[in-house]
Write a structure and sequence with these properties.
This protein is an alpha/beta fold. It has 13 helices and 11 strands. Helices cover 48% and strands 16% of the residues. The longest helix has 23 residues.
């Protein structure tokens, strides 16, 4: 079997059919769809069972609610495909020839990670825009130097922001025991780092196959939560010691710059928190503040200087206001 598509499901009944049909409508048919019902209290469990009755390639896991990471891990534990794709239950694939193109490029390249593009769909404004594309295809797909390719991905902001816009070899995942850390949010940072630090060959496609719903009702992504900060804390605690020991000077600089970027995302999140959550978040952010000295992107240098000038507490509020005014 070529592909295992894992869909964690929790309170997405209004969007689930778009998600499932985008897989069922693929012209390439050698796949399995693993629907992980994470104790969803709406109609999702019944919908999942209905899909499984209609198509033998669809498997359903019903489990008590354990969060996104736990649901994804349940799917990874049962996946049988050569390559794994992660698809959120409120998102969908927008081209029916996606799997066909992926499979052809896997055969062509032998890569253990295939990158592709993403389209953001703002549910409030109706606007759709390509948010991930424009890869340097000759460098990635024809280059032979892994260090040059990783340097490009990390330094040019081309590393995936999440776990959903790539197909990853299941052999790579199992060889390095890659799973999502449970009990936190922002868990994708750890997963993406695990994949790209350990991968041997990357292939990229510019097609924005994945449609991501922004600003949907009930989503926590825009509001933020203390669990996101705890996820950033977990990632930095784990990866700063590991990546500081990278023997290649350029990659070490790139890796630490990327960790500084992960830290900077916590500034906007902290600016949205209140009370004890904000207090805990500020404590965690202060603990990791020194990582900013490794940031070489211009915006990270500005964050380091401004947070020193205004103080971290005030700067989190200013940073959040600036972000909200300049982003959708």
């Amino acid at each position: 079997m070529r592909f295992s598509i894992i869909v964690p499901i929790y309170k997405v009944a209004d969007y689930l059919d778009d998600c499932v049909q985008s897989v069922k409508n693929q012209t390439y048919t050698d796949w399995e769809l693993i629907l992980v019902d994470d104790g969803s209290p709406d109609a999702c469990p019944q919908m999942c069972d209905g899909y499984a009755k209609e198509d033998a390639r669809i498997r359903v896991i019903h489990k008590p609610n354990g969060g996104l990471s736990d649901a994804r891990n349940a799917g990874l534990d049962r996946a049988k495909g050569e390559y794994v794709l992660l698809l959120d239950g409120d998102d969908f694939y927008n081209r029916s020839d996606m799997f066909e193109m992926l499979s052809a490029n896997i055969d062509k390249s032998g890569a253990d990670v295939i990158l592709f593009g993403c389209t953001d769909w703002n549910m409030k404004t109706g606007e759709m825009r390509i948010s991930r594309s424009g890869y340097n295809l000759p460098l990635i797909n024809e280059g032979q130097n892994r260090t040059d390719i990783l340097h490009y991905l990390f330094s040019q902001k081309k590393l995936p922001g999440g776990a959903t816009i790539s197909a990853v070899s299941r052999h790579l995942i199992e060889e390095h025991s890659i799973r999502f850390h449970c009990g936190i949010q922002s868990e994708d940072h750890d997963f993406v780092l695990n994949v790209f630090v350990h991968c041997k060959k990357v292939f990229a496609m510019d097609e924005p196959f994945y449609t991501y719903r922004l600003q949907r009702e009930g989503s926590i992504t825009h509001s933020g939560s203390i669990k996101m900060i705890q996820g950033i804390d977990y990632t930095l605690n784990k990866w700063v010691p590991i990546l500081s020991c990278e023997s290649n000077d350029q990659l070490r600089k790139d890796y630490l710059n990327y960790l500084a970027f992960i830290y900077s995302t916590g500034i906007v999140i902290t600016g949205r928190l209140h009370g004890k959550d904000r207090k805990e978040s500020l404590e965690l952010m202060r603990k990791h503040r020194s990582i900013l000295k490794y940031g070489y992107w211009r915006d990270l240098r500005i964050v380091r200087l401004a947070s020193s000038a205004f103080g971290l507490s005030l700067f989190t509020i200013l940073g959040r206001i600036y972000y909200d005014r300049t982003h959708i």
